[in-house]
Fold:
Amino acid sequence: MLNRLPSSISALLDSRSEGHSLPAGLYTREDVFEADIDVFFHKHWICVGLDCDVPEPGDATVIDIGKTSLILLRDDDGEIRVLHNVCRHRGSRLLDPGKTIVSKLVCPYHTWTYELTGELSYAPHMGREFDKDCRGLKPVTFKSIGGLIYVCLSDNPPEDIDVLDQTMVERLAPYDIRNAKIAHQVDVIEDGNWKLTMENNRECYHCSANHPELCVSFVDLDFGFDPETLSPEDREQAEEHFRLYEERTKTWEAEGFPSAAVEQMVDCATNFRTQRLIIAGAGESQTHDATAASSKLLGHMTRKDLGDTHLWGHNSWNHFMGDHAVVAIVIPLSAGKTLVRTKWLVHKDAVEGVDYDLDKLTDVWIQTTDQDADLVARSHAGTLDPAYQPGPYSRFSETNLDKFAAWYIDRMRAHGY
Structure:
């Protein structure tokens, strides 16, 4: 625990009522933000990128998380590395934020030079007795799970990441996202706390009123509804939809495509949920008409009718479809600012304008993310208002938010807050 943080964080945690949103201070206070970075972004596994962010030897990209800066790169042997972006001389940053191509990592301050493995190879004017062997760049613990790069900045990373790894290795294999191509990337800075960003993504209570483009292909009822509020016709339609889910899931799994929901959301360190979801309408992809955006399917996929393999983590959400994937990574910037970085993946050989149309590929999630940014900003502004008090979650469509809040409290307690 960071001892300088006031004990009143503990009082805020104590004041949270089961089934209700968090107390305002847990969204708005800077000391809570510092605690969140310490607990959830340093001591837990977080998604920071993809193997295909660095497709060739020498490709590198910098990811900043709080005061920590990381270099994700591919070395000369084609291996992925994650290194701290801190020179072992006097601490200078080696690389600037963003993507670059390097043959070696050269500190711009005094030209200390590192191999792409992190080994220090050149340190001028340090004397014959200087031992370069103990001055390599500090490595970061990481795992590539089906091509998604997870890091943990702690010396004691949670072991239950293995459940996520074992669950997703088979599910992600047909998409081969390690060898996919990033067709597009968009960074959006939301005016809200990172937990509001994640809460907003974990429910679709708001979808029908706010996401007309997404709702062409995404079924908002998948994440709960109150049957008493539905007309007899709508209730019958919902019941038919879930009968179809049961039938489709059995068929998919019999055909060798794991599809049933797997949840590790409470009483755990590594928080995730995955399920193969039915795509509405034409049933192929999350596009404006629910048809595939790319004629060249992802990886080893040969079918467009295998729905949407979705995956949540505590700082990411993902949708893997036959023709493309959408990967969103969340990085807190302050108590009231959150970066949402969205990447669209296609087959590595897909050609823009020939195999896919970029607007069709991206427009639904560009609009959805912008709409969500507005909702998060509204929510955060409300938590700053003296009139705010935690409100009740819907027991039909916001149960995952209650689980997230309970997990958040539990993990804060586990780390001494």
User: Anything to note?
Assistant: Residues 1-6 have pLDDT under 50 and may be disordered. The first helix runs from residue 8 to 14. The chain has two domains: 46-143, 176-415.
